[in-house]
Design a protein that fits this description.
ITPase-like_fam, alpha/beta, 7-stranded mixed beta sheet, 188 residues, binds thymidine-5'-triphosphate, Maf protein, dTTP/UTP pyrophosphatase, nucleotide metabolism, cytoplasm, hydrolase
């Protein structure tokens, strides 16, 4: 049995894109509070490992978890609590580069596989009117960093380097590799 340890609808859709349909979806419950002075990549990898431990499954089951973290320098941008929070994130991201880190973890029996994908994204210089317009779409809700590249914010993304699927929430190349390493047959 293949268990997706994530409540993110994006991750379910991305898996479907490579023909993988989980037998069960079990969102993990973990405390996502960063530790003082914790660096973004270390944070993202720690949370992913914690998610993997938090998902119940049988010994023969394959479990996949991931975490997407947005970082400006050493600063971690989580999910905005409200529109004001999202506006502050967007002002910070406006016209400059930031990192989107997605850590991925797969488990089967006592074996574990980990990969981390780091992408760079540059948003255009945003006017206050553009920020207000984007906030009005509501698409920023529940999205790390306060935007989602697969939604209307695509109009604001000037440039990316890395993995488009990882920025959305799951690096599909690495995902396919790890699932195959764990013994899940996929179309390739
Ligand atoms: C930057 C960016 C983030 N996101 C989303 C993906 C993730 O769902 C979310 C980051 O939160 P995560 O904590 O990675 O995931 P989640 O809480 O949605 O689900 P779970 O913990 O159960 O796996 O931000 C986008 O959809 N598009 C983007 O471009």
């Amino acid at each position: 049995m293949f268990v997706l340890g994530s409540g993110s609808p994006r991750r379910l859709e991305l898996l479907a894109q490579i023909g993988v349909v989980p037998d069960a979806v079990r969102p993990p419950e973990v405390d996502e509070t960063p530790r003082g002075a914790e660096l973004p990549r270390a944070y993202c990898e720690r949370i992913t490992a914690a998610k993997l431990d938090a998902v119940a499954a049988g010994p023969e089951d394959i479990v996949l978890c991931a975490d997407t973290t947005v970082a400006v320098g050493r600063r971690i941008l989580g999910k905005p609590e409200d529109a004001e929070d999202a506006a502050a994130f967007l002002r910070l991201l406006s016209g400059r580069r930031h990192k989107v880190i997605t850590a991925l973890a797969v488990r089967r029996d006592d074996r574990r596989w980990f990969r981390t994908s780091v992408s760079t994204v540059r948003l255009k210089q945003l006017s206050e009117a553009e920020i207000a317009g984007y906030l009005a779409t509501g698409d920023w809700r529940g999205k790390a960093g306060g935007y989602a590249i697969q939604g209307p914010a695509a109009a604001l993304v000037a440039w990316i380097e890395g993995s488009h699927s990882a920025i959305i929430g799951l690096p599909l190349h690495e995902t396919a590799n790890l699932l195959q390493a764990a013994g899940l047959e996929i179309w390739t």
